[in-house]
Amino acid sequence: MLAITRAVPDAFADALAAVPPDPPIDVARARVQHAAYQAALGALGLEVVTVPADPACPDCCFVEDTAVVAGGVALITRPGAPSRQAEGAAVAAVLAARMEVVTMTAPATLDGGDCLRLGRTLYVGRSARTSAAGVARAAEVFGPRGLDVVAVDLPPDVLHLKCVCARLADDRVLVVRGALPAGVFGAAAVVWVPPEEAYAANVVAVDDRAIVAAGFPRTHDALAGAGFTVHPVATTEFRKADGSLTCLSILIPG
């Protein structure tokens, strides 16, 4: 399996945030945390490819939002924040060397952080960043490739679908208790995250190992109890920019 990541730019201190961070983002510390994240991906057995940072794109290290990969094709998205819509070109160039690449055009918007795949179903959050037209474009691309695309309406205080859930396996998902309607993921088994540790619901899981934000003991215990070996990684600087673990990579099956 391959993980596409993108370097942290000098401008990361100016990344988007719902609330201006206090203290501000420490770019040097963010780079240390990013390196630890990449090392954790490697420890999970992934080959890590890093796209250079774009100094004109403060949020570009959150590479997940720029593409959705499934069914042997990469959909290059059109992020919902206008300041992020230039991020996709460099990622598209890297993906085009490995698979078919298709695009999304205005007015549709979609952030990769709103997309969660379980088996043959791709769940897409309708959010402030992902529009109904974006969901429709995902269905147009992935439906013919054998995936069911299911829209999930998100509460206004949830930035992305994967802020409150994460794939653990094709038939298992991590979810913040009370954050989504019961049964939204069908028959998938659920590992619950307590609401007070909601940030930790965003994990990167491969087989029986999971990269988890450091400092959330109840979530770590829940994952360990579900049979996962937990790899904690500090994410303090990315959290200041409303980012977390899956935001920092695009996973491509081997």
Describe this structure in words.
By secondary structure, the chain is α/β, with parallel strands linked by helices. It contains 5 helices and 15 strands. A 3-stranded mixed sheet has the order 2-1-15, with helices on both faces. The model has no long low-confidence stretch (mean pLDDT 97). It is globular, with a radius of gyration of 17 Å. The chain has helices at residues 27-43, 88-96, 132-142, 217-225, 236-239, and strands at 2-6, 47-51, 67-70, 73-76, 100-103, 115-118, 121-126, 148-153, 165-169, 172-176, 189-193, 204-206, 209-213, 229-233, 250-252.
Mean pLDDT: 97
Helix percentage: 10-25%
Please report the total strand number as a whole number: 15
Q: What is Rg?
A: 17 Å
The backbone outline, from C-alpha atoms, is globular
Strand content: 25-35%
- What's the helix-strand series? EHEEEHEEEHEEEEEEHEHE
Widest β-sheet, arrangement of strands: 2-1-15
Which stretches are poorly predicted, pLDDT < 50 over at least 5 residues?
none
> Major sheet, described briefly?
3 strands, mixed
Structure annotation, total helices: 5
Structural class from helices and strands? alpha/beta
Report how far apart the termini are. Answer: 4 Å
Compose a concise summary of this entry.
The protein has 254 residues and is α/β, with parallel strands linked by helices. It has helices at 27-43, 88-96, 132-142, 217-225, 236-239, and strands at 2-6, 47-51, 67-70, 73-76, 100-103, 115-118, 121-126, 148-153, 165-169, 172-176, 189-193, 204-206, 209-213, 229-233, 250-252.
